[in-house]
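User: Hey, quick favor. My workstation is busy. Could you predict this chain's structure for me?
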Amino acid sequence: MMALCIAPAPLRAAAFDVTSYGAKGDAATVNTASIQKAIDAAAKAGNGVVVFKPGVYLSGALFLKSHMELRLDRGVEIRGVQDLAAYPVMQTRVAGIEMKWPSALINVYEQSHVKIGGKGSLDGDGKIWWDKYWKMRREEYEPKGLRWAVDYDCQRPRLIQVYKSTDIDLQGLTLKRPGFWTVHICYSQRVTVDGLVIRNNTDGRGPSTDGVDIDSSSDVLVTHCDIDCNDDAICLKAGRDADGLRVNRPTEKIRIYDNTVRGGAAGVTIGSETSGGIRDIDVKGLTVLAAVPAGILFKSASTRGGTMENITIANVTTVGVATPVSITLNWNPSYSYAKLPDGIKDMPDYWRVLTEVVPPEKGLPHFRKIRISGLKSTGAQRAFAVSSYPDSPLVDFEFKDIEIEAKTAGTIANTQGWKMEGMRIKTADGSTLTVK
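Assistant: No problem, here it is.
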């Protein structure tokens, strides 16, 4: 007689409802402690899922643990409180240098196997931080020639921080109004970012509200995201200046597939923090719309250093984007080059790491082995805006099947070994592209 074998049904993960721990989705109660208790219980049980009834849950920083899921279903919102004391200061990296900084609203800090997903939302309610930044910058820092310092001194919470963590999934959420960056993936491996909707340009235009920042990390997938922010939308970073060269950790093996960018500085950005190197990058299927100044943006500075290589970008469509291809290695000098003020002895330690790189040639960034194909652009102002340094030319770039309609062709300078095949650039002023 044949034995009948029936596979056991998969175990259903235990659900931990935050309301059972005292949380209230009334948009008035501060629920930080209650939600954290649910998180801790889910992690202790192993593979537990933290769930919410519909509502708006005010909270400060939350810290997820290994082997758990935070699920925000439709109708659920976690909204950050506007009190910097609710975001404990922790060691991290911010804008390319290692320093202490307020924690994010949602933190995956030195953990593994964590999922954050659902059709709900995270809202940083960040306008209070944006206003603080602009006030400091315009009234105090720029008049003193300290534009470069205000981004570090005006501490603002990020929305999601993934730091020194592995096997992390972010899926499906709507993310809104962070005080600073939206998603920061730093010193981490095997991270998936799938189907996020990022909407930062409500209630004003928040400074440095990057979409997804991948920072000295590896094996990261960003796919099916829809981003409207007020700075870099999808950005690859690897440290800044002397501190970044000291850490010397690359961003590598990154896949960026089938994303849409509606607002931001560029569709996809390499840099400006390039010190540890950025390599083995694959971008496919990117749509960039009119509110964005650049389609593909490479940026660095003469103090950054690092080698950017083996980068493939294919099937990019831009509509009304001013410059489809932009490369500058002297980006934003008032921010990129830190000049320590004379006569100030009691300055923050993190100012001191933003000093000149010695020897100076160590600060030159290098871009090589870049392949761009299937770029189609309409409504552009100029097709190309490309420049480098004579002693650090842009080496072995390949362009194939490029179609651009623009007012003018633009310029390309300081290149070596460039190849162009199937270039169709139609300009309103009749100009043609020159490569020097």
